Amino acid sequence: xAIRRALAEWxxxxxxxxxxxxxxxxxxxxxxxxxxxxxxxxxxVEAINRGEAPIYEPGLNKLLREAIERGTLxxxxxxxxxxxxxxxxxxxxxPSLSDGSINLGYVFDAAEKLADALAASTAEYPxxxxxxxxxxxxxxxxxxxxxxxxxxxPGRDFGAASNPExxxxxxxVEDTLNPSRVVIGGIEPRSASQLKEFWQSFYQRxxxxxPILVVDNPETAEMIKYASNAFLAMKISFANMxxxxxxxxxxxxxxxxxxxxxxxxxxxPAFLGAGLGYGGSCFPKDVKALTAHARxxxxxxxxxEAIDWVNETQPHHIAKRLEELLNTLxxxxxxxxxxxxxxxxxxxxxxxxLALAKILAERGARVRIHDPNPKALENAKRTLGPIAEYTTSxxxxxxxxxxxxxxxxxxxYKSLNPALYTRLMRRPLLFDARRIYDPQTMKKAGVEYxxxxxxxxxx
Length: 459
Known about the structure:
Strand content: 5-15%
Structural class: alpha/beta
Largest sheet: 8 strands, mixed
CATH topology of the largest domain: Rossmann fold
CATH architecture of the largest domain: 3-Layer(aba) Sandwich
Radius of gyration: 24 Å
Helix content: 40-55%
CATH superfamily of the largest domain: NAD(P)-binding Rossmann-like Domain
Number of strands: 14
Shape: elongated
């Protein structure tokens, strides 16, 4: 496809300035695209316009600050400036309802508020692109809401498309700059073509040129996102179920099992790491949402239910292992190393570490939580409250503890000297729930080492 206009000629709007929206906005604006970001949170908008990212994401602050200084990014609570946008990305949240189904309220609210801007649009053919993770059929409903509000005809007066995101928290900037793929599904060819032209122009500027997959309709694009996340979640739960079996077999180690599996060229070892389970803002809610959507279509989602069940029960499984090792949890001091659901983020949403902390506290343990990221620790305290003690000091976290659990695979923990555990803990019992240590190295150092997926030593 020939590029008809220079990158600086595009006008982009982004509705919702969370992880996806703000990262997308900052990356585009840093590279010269004129971006207007809209969010309902006035305090967040003010912080962004000062060049301060309200979320922790490696590399984001620098890009944001420079984009604001150059004048290529502006945040506002008003939808009015979006009338100049060629493409408007919807990147608002899609949380779970109590039954696990998706809450599309923020998406539809954004569509309603966009209507006036589209009715007064100065763009030749404005396209609304839904980046939020939504169940199939949502993008058409967004187009329908705008049509009802304005009388504008989708496919003639404005375009609409699904353009799902595939960003990893902690790697969001990197994934925006060099994505594994760009997926586009328009309600008609012109919408898809305009989005493809924009992304081709952007990535040609960067010299990365990722594959751009244009599918026949938005429903297929929406489903690709859910299918991808559900499959990755399935691999994690599969590894955790195998790990539970390995723990019952003398001398068996899930790490070695996965290495052997990965020698098969058909099996990719990524996401086959056994641990505490998956957390964060995507996998848990997306598996539940796809499960609920399948039921609404009269499809029995047994496999999806099993994925979720393994993940929900994994912290209980780890708590039971600790209880067996300590004889009782009541009155024992257990230190949880890591609060964030994954390293390089401050996000504790659906963190398996916090789920484990709650279970341990309910069973009478004195729980301490450590995280090298102070913001993650603050978020953990805000979530759990007084059921645990919180510290950024390793010495305070480990001193006098009866057991410690590696709950987040931060590099900070990987580089610790094993002597720290033996010197500070009352009993140097370490449960490696992320498999970051070599068992023999830890045992030689005098650490009482146990781990997910590690069977007992052969006699």
